[in-house]
Model the fold of this input.
Amino acid sequence: MSEQGAAILKLRNIRRRFMLGETSIDALHSVSLDIQAGEFLAVWGPSGSGKSTLMNIIGLIDAPTDGEVHFGEQDTRVLADDELTEFRGRKIGFVFQNFNLVPVLSALENVMLPLQIQGVAVHEARKRAAAALQDVGLAKFGNSLPDKLSGGQRQRVAIARALVVEPSLVIADEPTANLDSENSRMVVELMREMNRSKGVTFVFTTHDPRLLDHVDRKILLRDGNIVSDEVMA
Amino acid sequence: MKNLFKLALRGLMRNRRRSMVTLLAIAFGFAAIVLFAGYTHNVYDGLARQSIHGELLGHLTLSKRGMRKEGKLDPERYMLTASEVSSIAKALKDEPHVVLVAPRLGLSGLISNGRASTIFIAEGIEPAAVVRLRAGSLTEQEKKSGMFESMKMRLDPEHPEVASLSSGLVEMLHLSVGGQAVVLANTLTGQANALDITLGQGFNTGNANSNDKFAFVSLDLARTLLDAEGRADRLTILLDDVNQTGAMRDALLAKLNKAGFDIEIQTWQELSDFYTQVHGMFDMIFGFIFSIVLTVVVMSVANSMGMTVIERTREIGTLRAIGLKRGGVVRLFTTESMLLTLIGCATGLLIALGVRWGINMANISYTPPNSPSPVPLLVDMDIGRTLFTFALMGAVGTLAAYLPARRAAQKDIIDALGHV
Done:
């Protein structure tokens, strides 16, 4: 967790260019952005606006063509691949649109996974994962395989998996895209609750304007540019 | 990752049918190798016992230097004298692992029943030495099979004129047990000498080429016939452990050379051309089968793991995103592959043990090339080759997943996450 109000992520003049055969497409044009610790921030905009590209760069799973990404005091450009992977594993949690749970592992084992990747002892990982599942209201479903859970429950498991490493930042790319409106609302409320109770910074993308009512700040992207950046009252 | 094995094992369970097919390919391949290795082991063991005990080669054969090459042309020169025989036997008596030193005398000539004559080749040996050398020539299973009854031969310590003739020779001369024949040979000085013999027993040499001319006579009779009192052309040495053959050859040679004896010592492998040839042939066939099975295993595992990696590309992207390094991805899939291979080999071992039991219980027999009688088809467990195959298959099976796993690990995370 980070101190409330300090910038945990700074993007400077981020450009991301993709090559499609002979053609190059700029998904992001010189985007600059500061994300403060403890923010609950939504990035929204139409399809093809560059939301996912921006999330990938914020999540350190993609590198910009130009520009700088500073995570806290760390310039991420200087990190080698393994260092970046380790850094990402400790600092950032991910919630995916398709949940991306490992189907052969139970809910509890899925939540334990990031901890075990970091080398946390099994009993400690189990304890922390059980607590994370309890936080998202799924204490009773620890032994269930993902295919026995509803979409909303799977996404809550994914949120528990993202939070279990106690990250500074959670990235959620379209976390409600595969959920009905009721589950979408519940998932966003859960993320909001975790943001408030644990002080974790959440950045998520959405198409659904109704979900924007819950956020502290919303950034509208269009054609790879930030069109508006509103801090909600 | 602490739970690497668990994750790998669960991964194998994900596509059970594919894992099962690959596992069975490995299992049957492994079983085939283990069974063939077991069969050849039994053949090698049988041939070794046949050479050492059946053909009375013993483990080591001691003779004067040059005896094997030049002895036939000038036997007197290369024959051990009576004093050399007794001195060497005395020197070897207390050597560790040495259980018998038996003087031998080879001879050849004509054998006649009074109406017809034919050539013979004979070995003169003490009857007691025959009994000692023959001990341990058959396994309990071979004794039970009764197939080797025809190979028994007998000399009589009380009656040196009693000889055992190969069954072909007995048949040719129309002899029966207790029947008389005359053997004619040259003495060491070139004089013709003849003696009466009594047929003690007909026996099968186990070799079609020698079964119509070979005979065992007592050492006394051979010495009398050749006029070579106390002499021997070689000494057969029996050890208590076949694995000591090489070491004891070196030790005894060094000791006797130091004592002033100009001798050479050969091992039973060096003297048994048939054993060496069969061993070489079976080794080549084993290598051929092993290569084919190994290729099938590698292809199966590589194909299976290649498909697995493609199917789980998104999962790889997720694991990479939440902190698994590229090396971790490679380890995950190679571990999965290693488990698949090792479980396959373990299953193959069980199959091999079952089939082996069935074969050994079925009392199957066959007649090998150049053999006058059938032999039981038995399969041993060749522990050395089984372990070697287990280790090599495990290693190769693991490596078969390396390339697809490495390719997956190198994939961009966002591409992997977007994989459908």
